[in-house]
Structures are given as structure tokens and as C-alpha cells.
Task: structure prediction
Amino acid sequence: MRLVFAAGTLEVHGEASASLTLPDVIFDERTGCLRAPAVSYAKLVRALVGAKVPFQDEARRYAQLSLEARVVREPRVYQSEALEAWEKARGRGVVVLPTGAGKTQVAVMAMLKKQRSTLVVAPTLELVRQWHDTLASTFRVPVGIVGGGSHQVEDLTVTTYDSAHLHMDHLGSRFGLVVFDECHHLPSDAYKHAALSTIAPFRLGLTATPERTDGREALLATLVGDTVYRKDIVELSGSWLADYDVERIFLPLDPDERAEYDESRRLYRTFIAKHQIRMSSPQGFATFIVRASQTREGHEAMAAFRRQKALAFTARAKLATLEELLHRHRDGRTILFTSDNATAYVISLRFLVPIITHQTKVRERIDILTRFRSGEYGALVTSKVLNEGIDVPEASVAIIVSGSGSVREHVQRLGRVLRKSGTKHAVLYELVTEATTEEHTSERRREHSAYR
Amino acid sequence: MLTADLVRTRTRAGTIDIVRVDAKQAPEAEALATRILAVTSGCVGCPRGELMEALSAIECGPKEVKLRQGLVKLALDAATFSDAPEVDYPARRSALFLAAAEARKAGTFDRAALLGAAELGDADLRGALFGDLREQAQLLEAPKLSARALVASYDPAQEQALLLRAEKVQVRFATLGPLGLRHLFRKLKFLRLLYRFRKEETGYVLEVDGPMSLFGASTKYGLALAILLPTLRATAAFELTATVMWKNHARYTFHLAEAVAPRPPEADVSDEVADLLSGLSRIGEGKPKKREKGAEPWSFAVSSDVLELDPTELIVPDILARRGETAVFVEVLGHWNRDAVFRRMELLAKGTHARIVFCASDRLRVRESAITLPEAASLYVYKHSPSAREVFARIERLAVATVPQLSDLSGRSAS
Result:
């Protein structure tokens, strides 16, 4: 028998005895052979070996490596425990550790243990670059990049989820270990194919927050493996993560802002009540957009909706506090988070701080982050793209100017400043405009042990 | 192309159809298209953000919201916006933000003074600092389309967008000529789709999806299936049946019939291939003195072969060079599909049963030196257009390479 990798699947060629049952295999009339999804490779090989069926493995194209770490870092206790738990699960599973706890080190340890060609999949180009730099400085081998205009495949390669989804049909046999960083992204309809289409027998998922609002985290068990190890922020804070404070600052609207806020809110609420739109339902906002685009009254309601949000997001008192905080922490490294690009641009223009959004080109992002790390920039503003895309141990202040009600987003933002560095004490400020919808949003996102 | 959320659909008893612009709605659709084109023409020279705002203010009835959005999308696709600006905005931003950071650290932050020193005003600071954002791109040219033509393009675009959510597609052709088939295969291979092709009494049946579809329905190949639709339209008259995953992951059947057969393609080669072919023919004819004694001359023709690299990867070479029993194929990959080059190179690295020269533009950012190929294959990266002399030299080199056998699968489709 022959196992062949074909476009994200495995083809089984040759005569199989009637008594042999191969897992996940279906006869494919189109090509006249048996076919299995690539993710079933390890299972399939074990079944063939177990049944003592001789076979030719033409699928496996990954190499056995002799990786050596240039710098030997003594693993922390929980990192060794995580690796041990992962190995016990046959090298397949998810490790849940808070941001800054050294998930990358766990991956490096797994790579040293398994010594197989490895693909690291990360959600953003920042993280791809970060992984590339880490792997290049740790091992004496070239590290490839697929994505962001590069297509260089090496035994150690880093890619984005987008590129993995696009290229796994032909790269899926090249790696024996795949590390899915921030693996809560993986169970989406598109990205799951990045895991289904690779034969990698060893899979490591890394995340601080595996839970998804759609509940699809259960799919991780099939795509990567079960959760084999978990530690929370509060368990590591002080010892392995920086100590931190969370400070919520409530700020009032000025009287004229309050009057405009209330009027805008009344206009918008009247419209949605008239059209019986339930904004809390999953389709609520989409319905509002459609209805609002139909009439002049709708246009006005949409403008009012935007205005009341903008008033809460960039209230004068909020901007004044921001000025004060930037001044107070002028010697440190501060990241300002907003919930939308519009607010991020307002802040960038007002305080003349660099901005990173999805529109910022790779070269400029790199330049901004490099200067931020070196201390040339003391602050930068971003909306959501850096929630999980920046590793600056020196950053010690995070200011949530505005945000969503997502617990994950809030934990990720806190995580940006928790990486231990000397005697650093981190602080997360949350600026909340009083008596606006921000109060409720803030309560929702704080439903995590890190904020109790 | 429209996106799936812009398609107007109607579902009934497990079937889905697009809501077409019928005779009754046509005047209203044309009026809407006229307003969209008028606003767009009026905004030439404006930034994209302003144009979008002006377009969103066009009012319409509750039932025409998606129609308006779809027509706007098609109009914008046909419009021309400015390329990247000449001003180095990132450098301008960096200079200002660095000065500001330095002042803040020193405790001397003064926004007005910093802007003054950078010769920037507060009035249009956003445009002056972020002029390279997409919303700032300038509309250079309005679409060269009549309102009627814009409306006419709407339903085909809807049909195509519906296929973005397709899991598999079955197409029936009453008749199919060899040129049409070659044209279709060419597209299928680029799209990495798997197909079953069979001849029935009433014609041909083509079933298209991807390898992974065997293990569960997925819209993974939806984009490829949507891209295939214009090719089907250019191939022959057909009847299409697709399984489409629509709202709430429910499955529906979509039927589409194109009764009018297109004019068969006369010469299925691009200008680039035609130029290369005539260049090769000239060189082949002009080198008799250099030929080994008794050796036959090379002949060059448009290839009608289909070569199989693996079951999902077919190559329809553009040119067949033949000298006696020796055949060398040439495929011009051009400058549009970088991924296709890498796929081919990876599959070729496993070995090939035919001699083949791939010509890829340097705009695809591939390097010959970075890729190791078997003896019987060659990658030629060219600037501007492929040089016939260089391709000929490679053909002669490959002619002496050993290959196990020539796998001509041009009959693969017939059963």
C-alpha cells in the first residue's frame, strides 16, 4: 500500500485486505482510490503498523532535525509541567497560559523534544515576525516565512492563519509538528482547514483564552488535541508575571456633551423602537444598518448612533485624563487601546502618538514597534490589531480608552503589559464615561478572575 | 465581484434562487444606477471616503437596499482610484511623532508648537498625515458604463456571488468542443478543483468540488467555484446545479441554465504565447547549420495535451515542441498566479513524466536559483515578456533529459 499526500488529504493506493479497517478512510470515485483527511495521518499510520500491513509512506515529507538551542533557558516549573502533559497526550494538545507566561518557550521545548520540521501558525504579521526572530535567534537553522509577501519554506517556518489556510493544501505534508499560536482562532470555518489539511502527527495549541463566543472551542480537540495544561493569570501573577493594578476611572460628560449625548441617544432609540429592532439580538445591529439606510430618518438615526458613541469614546474629560496619564507615565511605555479606528485616529492626531491599525503597512508597523521597544516612542495607540500581536516586556501601562464587552479582549489587553521585566509593576487604566453605555460594557468585560 | 452578503435571494422548498432585476424593477434599478453613476462622476477628484459618504446618502425603497449596495459595489469595482501617493506619509508621521515623543519625555509637550515646527496646520491634519489611507485614495475616473450596462451586470454578479457559498457544482453540457474543453480544463487546474467528467446520452456531465469535500460539506472551494462560472459561460451552453450553504448553515439547491452557446474560442492562446510561438518557430527554422547531422528540425505548435502532475494538478501546456520522438512542453504562467508556480514546483520536485519549461514573470517574485527541479523540468523567470531564444535554449537542454514516460492524459475526460 502507498500513502500519498494530495491537496490536504491522504490517498491510500493499493489493495487492502477485506479484514483491514482503516480509520476515517472513504473510497473516492473521482480518483479511484481511498482517501482520508490529512489530519488522520497519525491514526492511519498507527492502524497500518498495528495491523502489520507493509506500506510505503510517500505522504511524509517532513524531516528529522537535529535542533540545538543556542541559549539554554532553564524552564519554569509550569513550562516543564505543560510539556510533560503535552507529551503524555502523544504530542497533541492545547496549553493554556496567560500572556507573558512564556508560551513561546513551551513551543521551543516541544520543538527540541520532537526534532521534526515545524510550522508555527500565528494570527498576525507582528507575531509572525516575533516568532521568526525568536526561532532564528534560538536555533542554528534558517527560518522561513510564508505570508506578508514572502514564500520561503524551511524546516522551521512561520506563517499566518490566512496563509496557512491558503497554502496548507500543498504545505501540509512538510511538517511533523505544527504550533498553533493563539489557537482560539483555529475553529473558524475557514481556518480549521489549516489543521485538517496537514498530516503533522504532533500539534501544539497555545492560547491564554481558548473560549469562544460561538462555543466552537470544542473543535480544538479534533484539530489540535484536548487541553492538556492550564494556568490562569492570578496563579502566576507576582512570581512569573509582573504584579499589576487595575484602575477604573469614571469620567463625566460636560453639560453640553451630556445634552447632545442624550438627544442623540433619544433619536436613535426612537428609531429602533419604531422599527422593533432588538439591538441585543445577534442580527440586531445588521438589521439597524439595513433599516437606517432606507430613509432620511434612518440616516439621521445612524448619524445619532455614531455621535453618541463618539461622545462617550472621546469625551473631553476622558481626553484630559488621557493627557494627564500620558504625562504621568512619560518615562514608561504606554499602549492606548480603543474599540474602533475612528477613535484611534482622533487620539493619534490629538496627542501626536503613532498609530497601528489594520491599514498600517507592515514596514511602518515594524518601524513603530521597533521604536516603541527601544523607547524612542513612549506611547502608541491601536484599536484591536495589537490585542494579541505585540511582545514588549518594557510596556507597563495599558490604557483602555474604549473597548468591547469581550472578556477575551480585555484579558488580552491586560496581558500586553504583564510580561515580567525586572521589578516592573504594571497598571491597566480603564477610562469609562459615566452614565453612558460604556458603564455596562465595562462591567461585561470584567467578568474574569484577573479583575476580581 | 459581489460578496455573498450582497446577494438577494429567495428560498423555497430546499431551493434557492437569486432575486433578479425583472422587467417591473428594471426602470427603478436603472434610475438607481443612473444616480450612482452620476454621484460617482460628480466625485471625480474626491477621496474615496467622501465618495462612499455621498453614495450612502442615495435613498431607495426598503426592497432596493441590497440592490443599491450591489450596484455601488459593481460601480466602484469599475472605477479607477489613485495609486499610492508620491508623498512619503509614513516618514512625515514618523518625524512628527518622534519629535512629539521626545518633547513629552522632556515634559515640554506643546502640540501647537510641534505642528508649527513640522509646518502642519490643524485644519486638515488628518489628510496631511494620513493621505496614504484607502479612504483618502482619489477617484480618478468614474466607471465607463451606462446605467443599463451596470444593471445588466448585476444578476450575473449575483449568480457568481451565490457560488461563493457553494459546496459542489454539477454542470451539464449538451455539446462540448475540444477548444472549450481545453479552456475549461485550463481553469479547473488553476483552481485546484477535483472533477468527475462523464459522457451521457444527452451530453456531458461535469461534477466539480475539492478533495476535502469527501469528508463533509464545506464551502472551502466556494471562491474557486465562483471564479469558474465565467469560464463555464465562455465554454458552452450549460445547466448548473449547485449545493449552496446559506443562512444558518442550511443547504439549498441552486439551478442555473445558460441556453445560449457562446462563440467557440478561435485561438485559445494569449498574445504572450502567440508571440513566443512565432519566435520559437523562427529560431527553429533558422538553425539548420547548428543541427546535428541528420537530426530533424524542431516543430512548434499550440499544445492540445493535458498532463497530470497529481490527481488535483493538471497542466495544459501552451506549446508543444517536437523533434522526432522527443517532446518538450512549454507553459507560460505569466504574472497573475504566484501560488500556481509554487504548487507546480513542489509537485515537480517529486518527479515528472514529461519535459517541461515553465515561464514565469519576475513580477511573481520567484527566483530560479531558489528552486531545485528534476532534470526534465526548467523554470525560466523573465522580465517583461519571455524570450524565445532563452526558451529555445532550455528546450534543447531538456531534450536530452531522461524521463520515465510521457503521460498524455488528454483522453482522461472521456469515459
About this structure: Chain B touches chain A through 54 residues (CB under 8 Å). The first strand of chain B starts at residue 9 and ends at 12. DSSP finds 13 helices and 16 strands in chain B.
